């Protein structure tokens, strides 16, 4: 055990970007690039499997279950007592087994990979219901208990309770879950790897824009600010519908629209392709081309024609449509109820419009879910439970 956990620290690993990529952005070039990069490392076609999971782990009088999707990769697993990697799904459908460096670790340690889809995402919805009432079963605590129950049930098929060492792995929000799993159930795994784990819920997350600007570089960041200002000028001048039609987003409210274009710039940086957004927009600025038209072209090329027109950024749609846009609605619930991560405009040199402020996020929570969510309280309670920036656990390895 000591060798395995120590060796994990030296593995230059990261969670697979392809397996956690947002579903609303999969019709453009960025998704193709992320897939190609993922396949350069490892790509394994596996069939989806199903596990009977408890709907409510904390109600002793309930035996209701739902079918939770998972994937299994056995090609590196050479011994029945070999280690098991538990890959944690996040805020989107888990449509395949992870690729990337998860396989590097599995190959190095002859490990089995098990990837479990997060409840209320993809095909793993308790009661088949995305209503606000049913979201009482969508909590961090329930998700962590899912992992524990899945691990214990699967382990019973492999052998005795201590026959195999389990390691939890996740990135971003699942990276936080991998760390919190060690806090909540320290005896269930021997270690966890948290890749860019967002372990500190943040009520006003102005640091997000600041980090994107830093990563983009001063010249690119300044052009992105000018681009936001150009959109603000058009919309306040009465040309909002015309500008929004460039994205197929004419039905979006102004603040929703500004949140969407902020995401369009940030995601390119997040997924390792700041060169595309920066070359496109800095080049347009230097040629004196329209920043509005250039950014619309970049967004459609990068994410597809439906990026701005689907429900993901549409507050009214998220409130009314409980069937087609489950991932976006479920993630909003988690943000509004426990995690926040509300990306707001910094006070100075903001990349995004100042319309995307804390009040925007709070009004969206209330519009979509009513008065049953209390974000500030949720952030405080989640931080106390798991320790925030200093998780109350051990043998948690953090990487970026």
From TrEMBL:
GO biological process entries: proteolysis
One protein family per Pfam: Peptidase_S28
UniProtKB keywords: Glycoprotein, Hydrolase, Protease, Signal
InterPro entries cross-referenced by the UniProt entry: AB_hydrolase_fold, Peptidase_S28, Ser_carbopepase_S28_SKS
Any one GO molecular function term: serine-type exopeptidase activity
Signal peptide: 1-18
Family designation: Belongs to the peptidase S28 family.
Protein name (record): Serine protease family S28
